[in-house]
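User: Could you go from structure to sequence for me? I need the amino acid at each position, not a summary. Structure tokens:
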């Protein structure tokens, strides 16, 4: 996991801290996602973002593989699958 380091001496940069408004329902969901009690909401949000980016890469790879298989004629129609399964 890579997180932005804020206010560190070795990597001086301007940083702004901001407040965001979320519903109580979302706060409850974020609390349930905590891996440990001191985990910040920022860490949880970064984990969610990282997860979605990884999923996107995997999904793109899977789509490209499937498109290649379709072009090569390696697929089954819905009717063929139903017939094979006796449905």
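Assistant: Here is the amino acid at each position, in order:
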């Amino acid at each position: 996991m890579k997180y932005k380091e804020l206010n560190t001496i070795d990597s001086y940069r301007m940083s702004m801290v901001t407040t965001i408004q979320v519903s109580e329902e979302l706060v409850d969901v974020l609390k349930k996602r905590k891996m440990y009690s001191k985990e910040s909401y920022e860490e949880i949000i970064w984990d969610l973002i990282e997860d979605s980016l990884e999923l996107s890469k995997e999904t793109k790879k899977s789509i490209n593989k499937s498109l290649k298989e379709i072009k090569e004629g390696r697929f089954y129609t819905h009717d063929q699958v139903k017939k094979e399964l006796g449905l």
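One structural detail worth keeping in mind: The longest helix spans residues 41-71.
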